[in-house]
Amino acid sequence: MRVVCPGSFDPVTLGHLDVIERATALFDQVVVAVGTNPAKARLFSADERIEMLIEACAPMPTVEVVGFVGLLTDFCRERGAVALLKGVRSASDVDFERQMAHMNAHLTGVETILVPASPTYGFVSSSLIKEVASLGGDVSEFLSPSVHRRLLAKFDVA
Ligand code: PNS
Fold first, then answer.
1. Annotated catalytic, 126?
2. Cβ(12)–Cβ(51) under 8 Å?
3. 1 CA to middle of ligand 1, Å?
């Protein structure tokens, strides 16, 4: 069975990778769907975000990384995915994801599976990582070395 792990991954963190790896233990195939809506401002381009994920997921042979635009439910249908799988860190994450899960189920009947973020990464988000890194704080523990290097280069603090 195939599952989709969606996100903007701007950039991918070790928290994301933990969820993706756990998805590989549950499903035969995992499609990491990278939202590439050009109307949304991102630090990393779609190509950069996809490239970083391909590199980070290389040790996981059942994972495929694909960019998508438009409705996530259409993407799931095109790919023959039975479910969406996302990590949640907090009650507010659950509440937000619950709304999207119901809307996505309404659109195509796709199921959503929410998994609790590992305690190690329970406070890690891409937006917080970017803010701290832009101000010179050390976020190396939460990123792969390659993603960390790319992030420092963006802020010219390498
Ligand atoms: O990293 P994020 O911000 O949690 O990722 C959000 C993403 C890309 C999964 C979400 O914005 C999304 O599903 N976008 C596709 C458009 C869509 O289907 N919107 C309706 C959601 S109910």
1. yes
2. no
3. 22
d(CA 21, CA 63): 9
Q: Which residues pair with 67 in a beta bridge?
A: 34
pLDDT along the chain (158 residues), means of 10: 98 98 98 94 97 98 97 97 97 97 97 96 96 96 97 84
State the Rg of the chain over Cα: 15
For the Cβ of 72 lying below 6 angstroms from any atom of ligand 1, the answer is yes
List the one residue out of 65, 59, 91 whose CA is nearest residue 6: 65
Alpha carbons 5 and 63: distance in angstroms, whole number: 10
Atom of ligand 1 nearest to the CA of 74: 18
Which one of the listed residues 42, 49, 86, 126 is annotated catalytic? 126
Q: What tokens does 93 get?
A: 């994450």
Nearest in space to 126 (alpha carbons), one of 24, 28, 19, 30: 19
**Ligand 1 atom nearest 107 alpha carbon:** 22
